[in-house]
Design goal:
Length: about 100
């Protein structure tokens, strides 16, 4: 157990609550997952040095499909930030 986890466990036993700040894109992905979607965020290297593009994809499991069983609902991108990609996916899916 890490020192931080040990300290938090001791403080939690004393009734002290902790809040960990989660990145906005991760919170959005969790919200989609709770709605039943399988979510992925892909980072691609851009054409210029140090440039990255992010793509977000939402799908769900469909047992009637032959290959992987995943049916694509929406894919958005490219975006320069993961927050923008996940927010666009949330809007596209309607969650």
């Amino acid at each position: 157990m890490l020192d931080m986890e040990r300290i938090e466990a001791e403080e939690r036993a004393q009734g002290i609550q902790h809040v960990r700040v989660m990145p906005r894109w991760k919170a959005g992905m969790r919200r989609l997952a709770r709605a039943g979607y399988i979510v992925s965020l892909r980072r691609e290297i851009g054409p210029r040095d140090g440039e990255y593009w992010f793509w977000a994809r939402a799908s769900y499991l469909d047992e009637g499909l032959f290959d992987s069983g995943l049916r694509l609902v929406a894919e958005v991108g490219p975006f320069p930030e993961p927050d923008q990609a996940v927010q666009a996916l949330l809007g596209e899916v309607g969650v």
